[in-house]
Write the structure tokens for this entry.
Amino acid sequence: MSDQSFPGGHDCRAREIVDRVGDKWSLYVIATLGEETLRFTELKRRIDGISQRMLTVTLRNLERDGIIVRTMYPVMPPRVEYSVTPLGCELLGAVTALVGWAETRVETIEKNRAAYDERAAEQTEAFG
């Protein structure tokens, strides 16, 4: 990979965007909204472990970047739905591929972690 193809050096704006869309919760929000338009409560229910505050912050950041859109309907009680924008759809393939890769590699990664931890513990004992 050349220096020009990876956002590392000259243009930190690209790195900022990668950081935003690549963070823990953004990936799951984008992947979940890629399946269908959802209300806040349903989105929170589908993303295990996310707090209400973190979901709110993540949604606002993604909306600000134009990756998702928030649609408010003038009804009582108020109804708000979230969906991916065309820009978000462009990103969706990469996000779902990454999430899918992680889901299919969980056991391998867990085995690797356990083996590493065991080696590290042995080295600690040996070198005290």
